[in-house]
Design goal:
By secondary structure, the protein is an alpha+beta fold. The chain has two helices and two strands; from the N terminus they run αββα. Among the domains are: 36 residues, no CATH class; 26 residues.
């Protein structure tokens, strides 16, 4: 797909490409010169939607603050370390 560069140096990103990438109005377009061509990376704006409850479908057990929470946190750390070293991780 070829587009003509406008008088202000603007280039239109085709609708097909925007749709495939999910790019919408207000996104940031980061440009980087790479050899003899330009790479463009799109960054969505910060959202202002609440994330409250977004992980609820994945929570299997409710924990009370205090000792239950501390035990769960320690268990999670132990499992993470065990998994890292079981895969041959160096711990670094």
């Amino acid at each position: 797909m070829a587009n003509v560069v406008g008088t202000k140096g603007q280039v239109v990103i085709s609708k097909e490409i925007r749709d495939r990438l999910g790019v919408q109005q207000g996104w940031l377009a980061l440009q980087r010169l790479e050899g003899d061509h330009v790479e463009v990376h799109f960054i969505p704006p910060r959202h202002n939607k609440s994330m409250l409850g977004s992980l609820k479908p994945y929570v299997k057990k409710s924990l009370r603050p205090g000792k239950d929470w501390e035990r769960a946190r320690e268990k999670a750390w132990e499992e993470a370390v065990r998994e890292k070293f079981a895969k041959g991780g160096s711990g670094k």
